[in-house]
Amino acid sequence: MPERIKIDEPLWDQSSFIGRFKHFFWVTDPLTCMVKDEELDKAKILVEQYRLGKEPKGTTNEQVIYAKKLYESAFHPDSGERQNVFGRMSFQVPGGMLLTGAMLQFYRTSTAVVFWQWVNQSFNALVNFTNRNAKSEVSTTQLGIAYVSATASAMITALGYKAYLQKTAGPFMQRYVPFAAVAAANCVNIPLMRQAEWMSGIDVVDDKNNIVGQSKLAAGKGITQVIMSRITMCAPGMLILPVIMERLEKYAWMKRITYLHAPMQVMFVGGFLIFMVPVACGLFPQKCSLKTSTLEWLEPEAYKQMLENTNNNIPERIYFNKGL
């Protein structure tokens, strides 16, 4: 009889970067975005049945592993709800390659910069909301403020940086306007979209998954790591590709096919993102941890509440989902 799969644990060791890379390369497979909702729901049912040891007779490990892949790629780990397909991390490659390619190609006019930053931040807002810690509620007003603030920060950064470079640098440096705008917007968009987490705190658990309290410090650590991951995700494509295109555009054959420059940039970005999405997601463990001694020092009220909740038997470390 085959050994049972640990259905709620990754297939690879998450204590190492290589293990996390393999996990996210597997779970962010863009092809899962093409799976119909009915099949996704069936995968969720099989995962739930397997968790209880009540899966249909004859179910193979291969079927369970595939169902696990679909479940983890399409359903939120906190709420168990099916995510909007455009907000899933598995949609980052097709969505990111289209938007990043467009931003890198259409950077010469202020109108193009404003339009593509608006489209990109609309997409980012959806991704950030979809992959938040779902146990923290966010009001419609908070979402609106986050969206407007992030979009405005991206546009202001892009236009300001573009205007500065027009006076102080050549056309090549202006190719980096999109990256500056995206990096700045991530620093605004993610914290605002997940503001309920760092304002009210998020649930933290012990090593047995028992909730021991709430922590704003944990929320801050998780959000900071997500910001770093998102900037890392787009950095190689947005920093290296301008150099590649600058050199290619000097060739006569490239000058004859200017209408293909945008599709080429989209494909190049896709090549980067295939690897950078799992790299960025795997930079930090999904199940983030925090020493309670740090909590005692920086967030004494939360620490005191945890002491009461655990009858003074507070664990050495607490754990929480950092989001993506």
Automatic annotation (TrEMBL):
Organism, scientific name: Nicrophorus vespilloides
Keyword Cell wall biogenesis/degradation: no
Residue ranges of the TM segments: 98-119, 145-164, 227-245, 266-285
Source taxon at top rank: Eukaryota
Name listed for the protein in its UniProt record: Sidoreflexin
NCBIfam families the UniProt entry points to: mtc
Localization in the cell: Mitochondrion membrane
Keywords assigned: Amino-acid transport, Membrane, Mitochondrion, Transmembrane, Transmembrane helix, Transport
UniProt-listed InterPro entries: Mtc
Bilayer topology term: Multi-pass membrane protein
One Pfam entry name: SFXNs
Similarity annotation: Belongs to the sideroflexin family.
